[in-house]
UniProtKB/TrEMBL annotation:
This is L-ectoine synthase. It comes from the Bacteria. Its EC number is 4.2.1.108. Keywords: Lyase. GO terms for molecular function: ectoine synthase activity. It catalyses: (2S)-4-acetamido-2-aminobutanoate = L-ectoine + H2O. The keyword Lyase applies.
Amino acid sequence: MIVRSLDETNGTDRDVQTENWRSRRVILAKEKVGFSFHETVLYAGTETRMWYANHVELVHCIEGEAELVNEETGESHFITPGTLYLLDGHEHHIIRPKTDFRVLCVFNPPVTGREVHDENGVYPLLTEDGA
């Protein structure tokens, strides 16, 4: 059994911050449960382009508001608390938070915590053995 609070991740290698967002990775690949779980806050007024070519991501909004744009279709969605989206087709997408946008995210395959978005917004597919 794993019991962990968000506060335990603060200031550790599980607490990843950029100028656009902060992600606290509560469960990672090293826990060997088949997914990773994160609490992420994307900051108001920013724009983040992402494309999870190697992962499926579920995002559940628990606070704030943002525009989600599917770059492939041009379709736009307004995401508010209680709304979730699933990137099951590896969609290129943009997030434009109108307010600080707090979400809970599940990744499959799980991330290790060492991933960094590349120039295309992609996380590489890393494993716990460092590959």
